[in-house]
UniProtKB/TrEMBL annotation:
Keyword Membrane belongs to the record: yes
Classification via Pfam families: Trp_Tyr_perm (PF03222)
Record carries keyword Transmembrane: yes
Cellular compartment(s): Cell inner membrane
Protein name: Tryptophan/tyrosine permease
A single Gene Ontology CC term: plasma membrane
TM spans (from-to): 103-123, 174-200, 220-249, 261-277, 289-308, 329-347
Organism: Solanum commersonii (Commerson's wild potato)
Database matches in InterPro entries: Amino_acid_transport_2
PANTHER family from the UniProt entry: OS07G0662800 PROTEIN, TRYPTOPHAN OR TYROSINE TRANSPORTER PROTEIN
């Protein structure tokens, strides 16, 4: 996922140099490197994928509110609460300056780290290290799409390149160190879950959700999980909004920039409506989005675009150093790895039917 993000950044900066402007979206990158045929193929996925992340985030927030108010007399206010959430964060992205958005996101990230630390400390009270030596490799193929979806950030890479003015060194550092933080959090959290659930005996077999299991064994976990979930959803939502606004504006040829509300309305309203109508859309979309949407958009496409950028004679490539070393071998591994997961998922789904 780091390599694919760097490949997108590499193609994005080259496209910025060639077009002489910032704010280059994925559509423009595909059109420059893969031509109209590539755009048509990509749009088969791009047509239905852009709104899915926001649907997932709205749906997850709706479920979060749903759980909070399930036993409350204010249960009927959950629609209004979810709508206020989208309007508040969407309004910050629409009217806030880059500094304001960065400050808000920084506060949210600090809250995430603080609540995550508290959650790990509380949940790891009965951690058994020997449980981490066990492995079930048969579960690996099913976990890859969810892992890929968990590390999606590539949609904000064009925004990152624009904000950093195409400075490849800064872009590389931001992507590498930026993804290292969630990687560390994921590894720690997986260690806590796997080292705790396996020690709870038959109780773990009755409850499939690890968080639900932790809630049932420790009353302090619940409020911390609620805070952490809200902050995590908020930061992800801001990132997706910033990335999708430029993407939709370019895809649909809409005017973008300050005081241009239409791209924001198309980004915020449809996913909000869909998630309110079906709060479970978050879970329904996870596996499908991870396998097909994410691995096509941020697995196959980055490798194909970079290959065309580096080795196609028809592509006019600015003389910039590659962000990902290894040449054709690396690009083949990125493309082949994503294609293998997609193919295995297709075969598995076909076998089920």
């Amino acid at each position: 996922m780091v390599a694919s993000g760097l490949l997108i950044a590499e193609v994005n900066v080259k496209t910025m140099c060639e077009l002489g402007s910032g704010g280059v979206s994925l559509v423009s990158m595909v059109r420059r490197t893969l031509g109209n045929t590539g755009v048509q193929v990509a749009c088969l996925v791009l047509h239905f994928h852009p709104l899915r992340p926001s649907c997932c985030l709205c749906g997850s927030f709706f479920r979060y509110i749903d759980n909070l108010h399930r036993d409350s007399i204010h249960y009927d206010c959950r629609w209004e609460t979810a709508t206020l959430f989208s309007l508040l964060l969407g309004g910050i992205c629409f009217s806030g300056s880059q500094r304001t958005i960065g400050a808000v996101n920084g506060v949210l990230v600090f809250g995430i780290i603080a609540s995550f630390t508290a959650l790990v400390v509380v949940a790891s009270g009965d951690l058994h290290w020997e449980a981490l030596l066990k492995a079930n490799f048969e579960a690996v193929p099913q976990s890859i799409p969810i892992i890929a979806l968990s590390f999606v950030y590539q949609n904000v890479v064009p925004v990152l390149c624009t904000n950093l003015e195409g400075d490849l060194s800064k872009v590389r550092s931001a992507i590498v160190f930026g993804t290292a933080i969630p990687l560390a959090l994921f590894l720690v959290w997986d260690g806590v879950i796997l080292g705790t659930i396996t020690t709870l005996g038959t109780e773990a077999d009755k409850i499939a959700d690890p968080l639900q299991l932790l809630r049932s064994t420790n009353g302090i976990v619940g409020p911390i999980v609620d805070i952490f979930s809200l902050l995590a959803i908020a930061t992800s939502y801001i990132g997706f909004v910033l990335g999708l606004v430029d993407f939709l504006a370019d895809l649909l040829k809409l005017p973008s920039g300050p005081n241009r509300p239409l791209p924001y309305l198309l980004t915020l309203v449809p996913p909000l409506i869909l998630s309110l109508l079906d709060p479970e859309i978050f879970f329904k979309a996870l596996d499908f989005a991870g396998t097909y949407g994410v691995l096509v958009l941020f697995g196959l496409l980055p490798a194909a675009m970079s290959w065309s950028d580096r080795y196609s004679e028809s592509t006019q490539t600015p003389n910039l150093p590659p962000l990902v070393p290894g040449g054709k071998i690396t690009l083949s591994l990125v493309f082949g790895g994503a294609a293998l997961v997609i193919l295995s998922e297709i075969l598995e789904n076909f076998a089920r039917t």
